[in-house]
Amino acid sequence: MKLSRRLVPDVTTLQAFECAARHGSFTQAAAELNLTQSAVSRQIKDLENQLGVLLFERVRQRVILSDAGQKFLPEVRRLLNQTEELMVRAMASARADSSLSIASLPTFGSRWLVPRLPDFLRRHPGTVVNIASRSEPFDFEEQNFDLAIHYGQPVWARAICNYLCSEVIVPAASPALLSVHPVEAPADIGGAPLLHLATRPKLWAQWFEANGVEQDGAYRGNRFDQFSMVIEAATAGLGFALLPRYLIEQELTAGTLRIVLDRPMQTENSYYLAIPEGKLENPISRAFREWITEQVG
C-alpha cells in the first residue's frame, strides 16, 4: 500500500492539536507537551495549511474549535489511541514466541474464557494474549484482532464463523428473593420483579410463552446492558433473571444464586468464533480454535 506523504500528518502535530483542543489554550498545551507556545502555534498552523481549513478560532484569551476542528477532533483522538495501542501491543509481544489478539463478548470473556485461559497458555508457552471487549461485530481491517467471540448468526464481513455452541438460559434468583417469592411453577414468577438484558428485551416474554404462561408484565422490570450486571443484580436480590448457566457457575457453587425451575430455554442465536479471512492459516489462531472447540464440547 503506497501512502501519500503529503496526506499523512505527523503524530506530534496531531498530539499538539488534541492537547490544545482539550485545554482551549496553546499555552497550556505547550506546558503539557514541554514545548514553547510558539512551537505549538506553528504546529497547528502547519496542520491547518495541510488541511486547508481553520481548526481554531480566537476568542478573548482562549482558542475554541471551529466547526471543522470539532469534526476533526474525534478522528484524531481515535488515531492517537490506536497508535498508542499499537505500540503497547508491539512492546508487550516483542519477546514472545507468538501473540494472539482476541475480541470477546464482555461477560463471556470475564466469566468463561479467562478462567480457562491458563490451560491454553500451558499448552502454548511463550504466547502473549491480548483480550479486549467487543459487543458488536466490527471491521477486522480497522481493528487488528486475530479472532473474535461472536453471539448471533454466522455472518461477519470478510471473516469465517466457526460454530462453538448454542445458548441455553435458565431462570435464576437469590435465596433471599426466593424466601419472599417462592416458586413452584412458571406462573409464580409472573408477579415477582424481573431483570432484563437490554439487548434482548423479549427473553422473559419468550420464556413465559414457551412455558404456557400468559403474562402481561413480561417486559416490566429493571434493565441492564451486560449479563455481568444482570448477574450482580440477581445476586443482590433485585429480581428473577434468565441467565446462561455457564455464566453463573461460581454463583451456583457458592449458593448465592439458585436455579428456580428446571425449565431451560434455548435462545435463537449461537456462539461462533469469527476469524478474518486473511488469518485463517495463522498457527496460533488455529490452535486457539481447536482448543476452544474442545472446551465447549
Describe what is shown at a glance.
The protein is of the alpha/beta class and 297 residues long.
Number of domains: 3
| The CATH class of the largest domain | Alpha Beta
Measured by DSSP, the beta-strand proportion falls in 15-25%
Number of helices: 10
The percentage helix is: 40-55%
Mean pLDDT, all residues: 91
Radius of gyration: 25 Å
**CATH architecture call of the largest domain:** 3-Layer(aba) Sandwich
Stretches with pLDDT under 50, minimum 5 residues: none
Structural class: alpha/beta
Terminus-to-terminus distance = 42 Å
Major sheet details: 7 strands, mixed
H and E order: HHHEEHEHEEEHEHEHEHEEH
Describe this entry's structure for a reader.
- This protein is α/β, with parallel strands linked by helices.
- It has three domains: 5-92, Orthogonal Bundle (Arc Repressor Mutant, subunit A); 98-165 and 270-296, D-Maltodextrin-Binding Protein, domain 2; 166-267, D-Maltodextrin-Binding Protein, domain 2 (3-Layer(aba) Sandwich), CATH 3.40.190.
- It contains ten helices and eleven strands.
- The chain has helices spanning 11-23, 26-33, 37-51, 67-92, 106-123, 175-180, 203-210, 227-235, 249-254, 283-296; strands spanning 56-59, 62-65, 98-104, 127-133, 147-152, 159-173, 195-197, 222-224, 241-244, 258-259, 265-276.
- Helix 5 links the parallel strand 3 (98-104) and strand 4 (127-133).
- The radius of gyration is 25 Å and the shape is globular.
- The mean pLDDT is 91.
